[in-house]
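Notebook, p. 212. Picked up where the previous page left off. The plan for this session was modest: take the two constructs that came back from the sequencing core last week, fold each one, and keep the raw output in the notebook itself so nobody has to go hunting through shared drives later. Recording the first one now, exactly as returned: residue sequence, then the structure token string.
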Amino acid sequence: MSEPSKACCTIPPIVASGYVPKGQYQTISGLKTYCTSAANPRGSILFIFDIFGYFPQTLQGADILAHSGNMAVYMPDWFDDQPADLSWYPADNAEKGAALKRFFAEKGDLSSTVARAQEWRRGAPTASNGSWGVVGLCWGGKVAALLAGPGTEFACAAMAHPAMVEPADAEAVQVPFAVLASRDEDAEVVRRFGEALKGRKIVETFADQVHGWMGARGDLGEERCKEEFERGYRILVEFFGENLV
């Protein structure tokens, strides 16, 4: 516990606007990938962004996991520079609902993304200990849960403000798993998901935060959101530090 705790104490101040990412983009396994890493990473993390793609908040989160957690973090672009439009959410009219439905059918198909993620990881560089974790936001959280099932190549997995939460996915999880839910997920479904996890787990609801606070929808100019953004990533730094060994 000592190493993760020391790492999480070094999380830098959260930047509310004008964030400058610490990593760079490379092509890995045929996909544009944001890569950010500590000098001598202890493990590797596949970070699956939400449907809105490369937002400053999400890139900042990846940098925290890398540099405060002493990890190598990789964030592939599953959407080929065509992410969903932030204005589509919440889908409070027919036009937005149709746009999101079309996006999920064309770009966000779960089964194909899981297969692409498995293929991507096999072609990616690996840190010295060879261990991989995976974390996903929103839609990416669902992908992370599916990647943690039977035959998984990941040592641990996590999801924040997850979409499409299903307790059946938790029953299939084979590795330590963390769930950071927002006020907008169905509390009863999240509870059942947590109960269905068989191994080491963290299940916590950030009761005053919106769906997306650790990603593209996080309003880091609002003090409470900024505090909970930092706390969420602290939890993840500790979780991966304890389970990627």
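Okay, moving on. Second construct, recorded in the same format:
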Amino acid sequence: MPEKVCRYVTTALLIIGQANNAADSDPQLYHKADPTYNGRFTVPVLLDRKKETIVNNESSEIIRMLFTEFEDLLPENVRESAHPAGGFYPQQLRQEIDKMNDWVYNTVNNGVYKVGLATTQDAYESGLFPLFESLDRLEKHLGRCGHWPYLFGKAITEADIRLYTTLIRFDVAYHNIFMCNLKMIRHDYPRLSHWLRNLYWDGGKTLNGHAFQDTVDFYVVSCPHCRISDVLLTLGSVQIRV
């Protein structure tokens, strides 16, 4: 089987392709930063092009770095410190955001991959049921006072951004390709569906124009997962499913 690697494109989207000695392939980026590196090649990564090295490859840390470490480079009126609600990680909500991030990451963000890449029925079910229990929990959360139109009220926080990246892919890729198919967001979770559509379609000042929509390409969302599914089929790692 030809080696599969992640390749970066100018739109900052990721696709899976044949290794072709391109300067922007995932292994080459890691080896350029550390020629002795022999671990996993993961994405996303934050690159320092000037020093030609990887700054960070942990998505949760990169998110916070983007709105903390680069503050001095921004006009004062768009800095986190100038945001009336306290920015994406407001001091008064940090404990609640951290708690939500923890269980959402383990059961939703990472949960869909536990399901889709499971190689046994037990592993599949151990990821599937916690995933939908957490989606049920999020649906109830949005119905509570003070948790609308975003997860923690009237302003977008880091928790919304982290959840969005998984839910915008859910019905398109995870439901049918990764077999996370007990329910669908658009049919079975009215509050989550409304929350998701609001983030995607709102072109107003709150969302900095269509910032969420402009960073989504549904072809790129679905195509890599189809290829991963093909690899699992080739290897015979297909779950019985429920």
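Notes on construct two before I forget. DSSP finds ten helices and four strands in the chain.
Flagging for discussion at group meeting.
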